Amino acid sequence: MLRKHSRxxxxxxxxxxxxxxxxxxxxxxxxxxxxxxxxxNVIMATSLNLINGYMGExxxxxxxxxxxxxxxxxxxxxxxxxxxxxxxxARLSPQWSVFVFPIALVAGGIAAAVAGLLVAIPSFRxxxxxxxxxxxxxxxxxxxxxxxxxxxxxxxxxxxxxxxxNGMQQVLNIPWVLIWTFIGALATIFLIRNFVSSTRGxxxxxxxxxxxxxxxxxxxxxxTKVVAFMLSSGLAGIAGGxxxxxxGGYINPGTFTILxxxxxxxMVYMGGMGSxxxxxxxxxxxxxxxxxxxxxxxxxxxxxxLLLILLMxxxxxxxMGNRELTDIFPRLRALFPPSDVGLPPQESREVLEYAPxxx
Length: 359
Prior knowledge:
Blueprint: H1 2-22, H2 29-54, H3 62-82, H4 97-115, H5 117-120, H6 128-147, E1 158-159, H7 161-171, H8 176-196, H9 199-209, H10 211-216, H11 221-244, E2 250-251, H12 258-271, H13 276-292, H14 300-314, H15 325-328
Antiparallel strand pairs: 1-2
C-alpha cells in the first residue's frame, strides 16, 4: 500500500519542502494567511465528507470537535512552553516546541475523537434530522462547557500560543504552522482515501445505501459508525489545534459556533458528496471567495448562501458529484494510483453489482 502511493507522496513532500520555502511570496503574511485557511478548510471538509458524504449521515456540529482539539492542543503547548496565569509557568524551553508540537496535535485529535463518541453512540438509534439535532446539541454543549471553564479563560478566550510559535521560529525562521497545516491536510487526504477504500470503508458506504440491508449482510454497523465518527472528529480536532496556533495565537469559544460548522457543510455539498477531490476544490474556492467578499462585511453571508442556492439548482450533485479527478483525467492515475482494496485498477471507481456465484 505504501509503495503504491509512494510516487504521489514524494511529489507532495517535494512541493512542501522545496517549492513552498523557495517561493518568495510565501513570506508575505497575507498569502500565508490564505494558504493557512485553505489547509484548515481542506481538513475540515474532507473529514466531514466521511460522515455526510460516504456514510450518508447528516452532521452539523463539526465545529464542536474542532474546538476540543483547539483547546486541548493549546493547553498542552502553553503549559509546556509559554506559561499561563492560571496554569503556571512554562515547564520547557520554547525551542522544544518544534519536536513536541506534532505530539500535542495528535493529543488534541485523540481528545476530539473521544468527544466524537457523543455523536457516534446516539447514531445507533437515530438518523437524518434527529442525528443532525444531536450533533448540533453536541456543538453547543462543547461551546458552553468551554465558556464555563475559567481556568482556560472562559468566554474571554485563551491566549499564549503565539509564544509557542515564536519559539519554533527561533530554531529555524520558517512558517512552521503553515508547513504543519499542509502536512495535516496531506495526511487527512491520505487517511480518508485509504479508509473509504478499505473493508471498513466499504461498510461505511453500505450503511449509506441501506443500513438494514448492511446489517443483514453481516456488517457491524455500530462498530463502523464508531470508527467513522471518531476518525472524522479526530481529524477535525487536529484542524482545531492548527487553527489555534495560527495568526494571533488566540482562540475564543465564539469562534466554534454553528456558523463554523455550516462553513464545513457548505464546502462538502459544494464539492460533491463522497468526493475527496471535490472537498479539496471547494475548500480552496470557498476560502478565496470569503476573502474576495470581505469588503462586503456581514453582507457576504447573503451572497454566499445565494451562490450555494444557485449551485444546488443548476448542479445539485456539487462540483464533482461522487467522482474524483482521476475519473475525469485517467492519465493522472499514473501519479495517483487507485487505492481500492481487492478491486482491479480499471474497475476501481465503477459500481459493481452483486451477481450469484456459480459453483
